[in-house]
Write a structure and sequence with these properties.
The chain contains 16 helices and 12 strands. It is of the alpha/beta class. The protein has 3 domains: 92 residues, no CATH class; 255 residues, TIM Barrel; 63 residues, no CATH class.
Length: 463
């Protein structure tokens, strides 16, 4: 290890501050996929650019049945892989919904290792057993819901789940308890875009003067109609104490065409943003890119349109094994986001979600990634790495645990401003633990002992 040494100023070489030339590939984050890349998919070989950029065509041709997906993959992958996908969906908590755009940027020459495929299309051969401590609503959102579809956990912020559908269905969705249709594994809580349910939400927000910040999510705000965007925006802005709103959506990552060709939706969203600004309030778009390959030239054009209207866009990623858990991929993601004027905001530790254990990684991985990316770009384009504490503790800095045992994989967090006096445990995936940790989790009689040990040590404080 080299130690930094400050030179004697009298002997300081004149060129000490001159950095060496950067490698030729140092600016790869600016190299976005262009051209008619979708034609590589046999089902889309005759699709014109005008069709592919049409949000209605993207929505109409999104695949919502496993049988249609398997038929689309014919000729692209082996029969063995197709059977593996069929088995994966039979064991998945989320139904299939994937856009032509997302299918087109997947690498079908190496589907098992493709980062985008991993996020949306499960394979039975790679699914690991769920962690014993997993629950369907792992973050306890329903327990903090005073009215259906509104989570009021933080003092001045509430989460409004306006609907329960999305332009695509991510395998790792925290809200697999409610989002999308029922699957063979999960019967969903219903949170339809219902005016009466919305009325209850608006009345509750209006009755709570401490609420200044409302997140509109779901499901996904991308699936709200243009008139619904205006209704939600204008209604919440009319509540005097509401100062900030965030529309949360995966849309720019999976169907950016909407921002280019759905003029009605775009106009209504910009209307809400500009109306808020005139009132001295703040409305932004929060989106969700996980891998640099999700950002194409179509993405850039869509983000440029928002940027030209003064819309702030922030990104929240989910840390996933073999997707974005290397310093190289994460750094590329952050730089590419910044290149298209999207501010990296959060990187979440993957929640304990049914059927996705092979996508989760350890808290230690998050800590190491944070070390590597900090300083690789500007501070305002460097995200916080967070654990959303299971059981309702809310977002905690990954490194702020009270105790972390890397052998058992248990990290313990507190949330004094959210739920004072309580402890919340996150559990690393068992297959990544050392042998002793795997052995103890294999014995159900050890489970409570391990948790109790971690809680006791957390309560004892630093030694």
């Amino acid at each position: 290890m080299q130690l930094a040494v400050l030179p004697n100023e009298q002997h300081r070489p004149e060129n000490l501050a001159v950095k060496p030339a950067v490698p030729a590939d140092a600016h790869k984050h600016r190299d976005l996929v262009t051209g008619e890349f979708w034609r590589r998919i046999p089902a889309y070989k005759d699709v014109t650019e005008a069709q592919f950029l049409d949000h209605l065509w993207q929505a109409k041709n999104s695949i919502i049945k496993v049988e249609k997906l398997l038929a689309t993959l014919q000729g692209l992958v082996s029969e063995a892989f197709i059977k593996d996908v069929e088995e994966g969906f039979a064991r998945a908590p989320m139904a299939v919904r994937v856009s032509p755009y997302m299918l087109s940027i997947m690498n079908w020459d190496d589907p098992y290792n493709d980062a985008m495929r991993r996020q949306f299309i499960p394979t039975g051969s790679t699914i690991l057993p769920d962690h014993p401590k997993l629950g369907l609503d792992s973050l306890g959102e329903q327990a903090d819901s005073p009215v259906p579809g509104l989570t009021h956990r933080y003092y001045d912020k509430a989460l409004f789940l306006a609907l329960d559908t999305c332009p695509v269905y991510c395998r790792f969705c925290t809200r697999s308890y409610a989002v999308g249709p029922d699957s063979e594994e999960v019967e969903k809580v219903q949170l339809k875009a219902n005016p009466e349910r919305w009325r209850q939400v608006f009345e509750y927000v209006a009755s709570r003067p401490e609420l200044e910040d409302i997140v509109i999510s779901g499901g996904d705000a991308w699936n709200l109609r243009a008139d619904q965007i205006r209704t939600i925006g204008d209604t919440l802005l009319a509540i005097p104490h509401v100062r900030r709103m965030r529309f949360a959506t995966k849309g720019p990552a999976v169907m950016p065409q909407k921002l280019l060709t759905d003029d009605a939706w775009f106009r209504e969203f910009v209307h809400v943003v500009t109306s808020a600004r005139k009132m001295g309030k703040d409305v932004v778009l929060h989106t969700h890119f996980n891998h640099p390959n999700e950002i194409t030239d179509i993405t850039r054009r869509a983000m440029d349109r928002l940027f030209s209207e003064g819309v702030m866009v922030r990104n929240q990623s989910v840390l996933q094994r073999n997707v974005n858990d290397s310093p190289e991929v994460m750094t590329m993601l952050l730089r590419r986001l910044a290149f298209v004027n999207v501010h990296p905001y959060y990187v979440y530790q993957h929640d304990l979600v049914k059927g996705t254990e092979e996508l989760r990684t350890t808290v230690h991985t998050a800590l190491q990634l944070e070390k590597h990316v900090r300083g690789s770009t500007a501070g305002f384009n460097t995200p916080l790495f967070l654990v959303d504490a299971p059981g309702g503790g809310g977002k905690r800095d990954a490194h702020s645990y009270e105790y972390y045992d890397r052998t058992t994989g248990i990290s313990v967090y507190t949330a004094p401003s959210v739920k004072p006096g309580m402890y919340f445990c996150y559990f690393d995936p068992i297959d990544l633990l050392p042998e002793e940790g795997r052995r103890r989790w294999a014995d159900p009689a050890e489970h409570k002992k391990m948790v109790d040990e971690a809680l006791e040590k957390a309560a004892a404080g630093p030694r």
